[in-house]
Design goal:
This protein has 300 residues and is of the alpha/beta class. It has helices at 10-23, 38-44, 62-77, 90-102, 106-111, 135-151, 165-179, 201-219, 258-261, and strands spanning 50-56, 81-85, 154-158, 185-189, 222-228, 250-256, 269-278, 284-291, 296-299. It has a domain at 46-253: Rossmann fold.
Length: 300
C-alpha cells in the first residue's frame, strides 16, 4: 500500500518557512549556490534545486562547461558535488581540471603521463626523483595542494552503460551518507545514454527528462543533465527546446558565435549560452569565451 501522507494546513507550513528564513543569518546576493559566473548567477539567482537541461551540438563544450561549473560550486560553496560520466574517463576529466586551474595545455599534461598521474596530478615517485621534475609539474603539484580543500568535495563516477537513474540516485545517496551534506550540484553528462538505445532520441527525451527531474526532486538538489543537439543547424532558433521539455526547471542551449569567434585566436571559440526556459527568473543570452586547450570558460 502507498505510504499515507500527513496533511498540514498552509498556515502551519508557512510558519515553518518563516522560522527557517529567520534562522538564515547570512546576507546573500543570490538564493542558490554560487556558480562562479557572475552573469549566470544574476540570471538564474544562483544554482537552485531542480533540473537544468544543458543542450548543444557535439564539440561545443558542454562537458567542459558542466565540469567547470561543478568545480566552481564545490570551491565556492564547500558543498559535495558529483559528476556522472558515460563517455569521459575520470583521468580525462581530471586532466581537464588540471589544465583549467594551472593554465597548462591539456596536451602538455597528457605528455607527462610517464610520471603516472595519480589523484589530480600528484606523481608516484620515489627517492630523490622529485628533484628531477620539470617546473610545469612542480606548478601542478603546488596547484593541487592549494585546491585540495575543495577538490575533496568532488566525486567523479564512471557510469556503466546499463545504469539507470535509480542507480545514479543510489550513488548520490552514498555521498550524502558519507559527507553528511546534501549535494551542491549533481551533473549527468550525456544523459541520453540512460534511455533505450533502440528508441530514437526524440522518443527517449521526454522519458529520460521525467526520470531525471524526479531524481532532482527526490534529492532536493540542483541537477544538470547534458543532452546533444544532433539537429543543430544555422538559423534554427534555440527556443524551440522550450516547449519540448516541460519537465525541466531550466533549459540552457549552447551554440558557437561564428561572427565573434573570428576575432579570437584559434582554437578558441565564442559561445552563446541561451536561457530559453527559467521557472525561477530571467530568460536571455550570455556570452562566453571558450579556451579548449585549457578546458576553461570565461564570461565575455
Amino acid at each position: 500500500m502507498p505510504e499515507k501522507l500527513t496533511l498540514r494546513s498552509e498556515g502551519t507550513e508557512l510558519d515553518a518557512i518563516l522560522d527557517e528564513l529567520q534562522r538564515e543569518q547570512q546576507v546573500k546576493e543570490i538564493s542558490g549556490e554560487d556558480s562562479g559566473f557572475a552573469n549566470l548567477n544574476r540570471a538564474l539567482d544562483g544554482v537552485l534545486p531542480g533540473l537544468y537541461l544543458l543542450i548543444g551540438p557535439p564539440g561545443v563544450g558542454k562537458t567542459c562547461f558542466a565540469k567547470q561549473l561543478l568545480d566552481q560550486v564545490a570551491e565556492r560553496n564547500r558543498a559535495p558535488t558529483i559528476f556522472f560520466s558515460f563517455a569521459e574517463s575520470k583521468k580525462e576529466l581530471r586532466i581537464r581540471t588540471l589544465a583549467r586551474l594551472s593554465g597548462l595545455d591539456n596536451r602538455e599534461i597528457r605528455r607527462g603521463s610517464a610520471y603516472l598521474l595519480h589523484w589530480y596530478g600528484v606523481p608516484r615517485l620515489g627517492g630523490n626523483e622529485a628533484e628531477q621534475l620539470p617546473p610545469t609539474w612542480e606548478k601542478l603539484k603546488r596547484m593541487v595542494e592549494e585546491a585540495r580543500s575543495w577538490l575533496d568535495a568532488i566525486y567523479l563516477v564512471e557510469c556503466q552503460r546499463s545504469w539507470s537513474v535509480a542507480q545514479i540516485e543510489s550513488q548520490v545517496g552514498e555521498v550524502i551518507a558519507s559527507t553528511g551534506s546534501k549535494p551542491g550540484l549533481v551533473v549527468i553528462d550525456d544523459c541520453q545514454r540512460l534511455g533505450d538505445l533502440n528508441q530514437s532520441m526524440e522518443a527517449r527525451m521526454p522519458l529520460i527528462v521525467e526520470q531525471v527531474q524526479q531524481a532532482a526532486m527526490n534529492l532536493k538538489a540542483p541537477l544538470i543533465a547534458t543532452w546533444p543537439d544532433l539537429d543543430a543547424t544555422s538559423g534554427v532558433l534555440p527556443h524551440r527546446w522550450n516547449d519540448r521539455i516541460p519537465g525541466a526547471d531550466v533549459v540552457l542551449t549552447m551554440e558557437k558565435d561564428l561572427e565573434r569567434s573570428q576575432k579570437l585566436t584559434e582554437p578558441n571559440q565564442a559561445i552563446v549560452l541561451h536561457i530559453v526556459k527559467n521557472r525561477g527568473g530571467e530568460k536571455g543570452r550570455l556570452a562566453f569565451d571558450f579556451f579548449p586547450s585549457f578546458s576553461r570558460f570565461k564570461e565575455a
